[in-house]
């Protein structure tokens, strides 16, 4: 019996080429596993058929949209996860979920090897293989694009020679990864970091410079989880999906950055994540209202470390698990409504309300009704500044 290889299949160039290549190089039967993460675009039935047309012996499509939203996007939202304070981890979030379903398929179909289409330059190779090492260390891993030194032009030539049914051509050289949480575009003319992105590369967002009426939305959270839009109870998937459309129509969530990859190089990436950026902006503001100051300050450091761990492929790690526990506890009072205006490429908070609010109007106001005892402030300031005053005096003695 031939060895069985379970391939993470996207339907794009690299994974389509991988099917006949693995069959030839390893004398293997390839089982293609495509995971629907709410990415839109091509019909999943088309992708499933493409895998068979490329030579797979089995082609599996997993509907993981709701799972991805609830178990991966929501934790990222609660962590306000933005790598380098900008990137909302859209590709990073999807890989551990894909790994989970690759392992399940290997058990179902008797696979002994798992394969992915990542190159040796990217982060995703680490995310796939670190996840596999945690969940199924007995499985072997092969990455054709990395292990056999495939270049993109060689892959295109191989695909044309084999007559593979794929869309990527020399005239469309972009590498695109997309899911419910956002869309990433790289390679091609974007590799020259002086070149600005052209409007034709965007799919989730409209040109923010075009005139249009603003859109106002009220997002309701319960313990850090989005539960409603404009008073309509919805699942996390439905909320993200709707905000992708509404915020995307206003050009919200475009990001053009040079980021630090895990493998040590800098890479130019263009992202569009309208729903993610709108939700993170709203969640951060609700935390400002409901989370105590020192907890909020400490959580910002936890959020940053959580983002780095997920970016670096360590979703299934002890530290990530421990930080999840901290973040979940910090969310117990993050409930309420945030009103936002979506317009001109921005998601701007215009209102906040919460029964768990720590904002006290009578303490904050400068008008009649102020209950803040200002007579206490003078002594507080003197004691607060005393260590600095004493240190300054010492410094003065030493010139």
UniProtKB/TrEMBL annotation:
Homotetramer. It comes from Nonomuraea dietziae. Pathway: Amino-acid biosynthesis; L-arginine biosynthesis; L-arginine from L-ornithine and carbamoyl phosphate: step 2/3. L-aspartate binds at residues 119, 123-124. This is Argininosuccinate synthase. It is an enzyme of class 6 (ligase). PANTHER family: ARGININOSUCCINATE SYNTHASE. One of its GO terms (biological process) is urea cycle. It comes from the Bacteria. GO terms for cellular component: cytoplasm. InterPro entries: Arginosuc_syn_C, Arginosuc_syn_N, Arginosuc_synth, Arginosuc_synth_CS, Arginosuc_synth_type_1_subfam, AS_cat/multimer_dom_body, Rossmann-like_a/b/a_fold. The keyword Hydrolase does not apply. Residues 174-390 form the Arginosuccinate synthase C-terminal domain. GO terms for molecular function: argininosuccinate synthase activity; ATP binding. L-citrulline binds at residues 87, 92, 123, 127, 175, 259, 271. Belongs to the argininosuccinate synthase family. Type 1 subfamily.
């Amino acid at each position: 019996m031939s060895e069985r290889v379970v391939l993470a299949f996207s339907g794009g160039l690299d994974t389509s080429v991988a099917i006949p290549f693995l069959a030839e190089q390893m004398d293997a039967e390839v089982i293609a596993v495509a995971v629907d993460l709410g990415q839109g675009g091509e019909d999943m039935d088309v992708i499933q058929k493409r895998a068979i047309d490329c030579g797979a012996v089995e082609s599996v499509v997993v509907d993981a949209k709701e799972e991805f939203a609830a178990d991966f996007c929501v934790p990222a939202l609660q962590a306000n996860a933005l790598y380098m304070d900008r990137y909302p981890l859209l590709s990073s979030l999807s890989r551990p979920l894909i790994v989970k379903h690759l392992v399940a398929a290997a058990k179902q179909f008797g696979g002994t090897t798992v394969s992915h289409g990542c190159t040796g330059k990217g982060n995703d190779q680490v995310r796939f293989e670190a996840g596999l090492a945690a969940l199924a260390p007995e499985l072997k891993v092969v990455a054709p694009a990395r292990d056999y030194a495939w270049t993109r032009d060689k892959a295109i030539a191989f695909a044309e020679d084999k007559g593979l049914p794929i869309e990527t051509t020399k005239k469309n050289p972009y590498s695109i990864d997309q899911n419910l949480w956002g869309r990433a575009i790289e390679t091609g003319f974007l590799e020259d970091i002086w070149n600005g992105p052209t409007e034709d590369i965007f799919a989730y967002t409209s040109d923010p410079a075009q005139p249009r009426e603003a859109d106002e939305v009220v997002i309701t959270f319960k313990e850090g989880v989005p539960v409603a839009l404009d008073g309509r109870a919805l699942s996390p998937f439905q909320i993200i999906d709707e905000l992708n459309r509404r915020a995307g129509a206003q050009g919200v969530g475009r990001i053009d950055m040079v980021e630090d990859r895990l493998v040590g190089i800098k890479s130019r990436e263009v992202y569009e994540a309208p729903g993610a950026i709108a939700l993170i902006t709203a969640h951060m503001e609700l935390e400002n209202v409901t989370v105590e100051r020192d907890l909020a300050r400490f959580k910002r450091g936890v959020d940053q470390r959580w983002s780095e761990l997920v970016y670096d492929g360590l979703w299934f790690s002890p530290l990530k698990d421990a930080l999840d526990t901290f973040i979940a506890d910090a969310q117990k009072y993050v409930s309420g409504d945030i009103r936002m205006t979506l317009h001109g490429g921005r998601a701007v908070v215009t209102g906040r309300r919460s029964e768990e609010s720590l904002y006290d109007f009578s303490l904050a106001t400068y008008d009649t009704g102020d209950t803040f005892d200002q007579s206490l402030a003078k002594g507080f300031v003197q004691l607060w500044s005393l260590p600095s005053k004493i240190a300054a005096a010492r410094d003065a003695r030493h010139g």
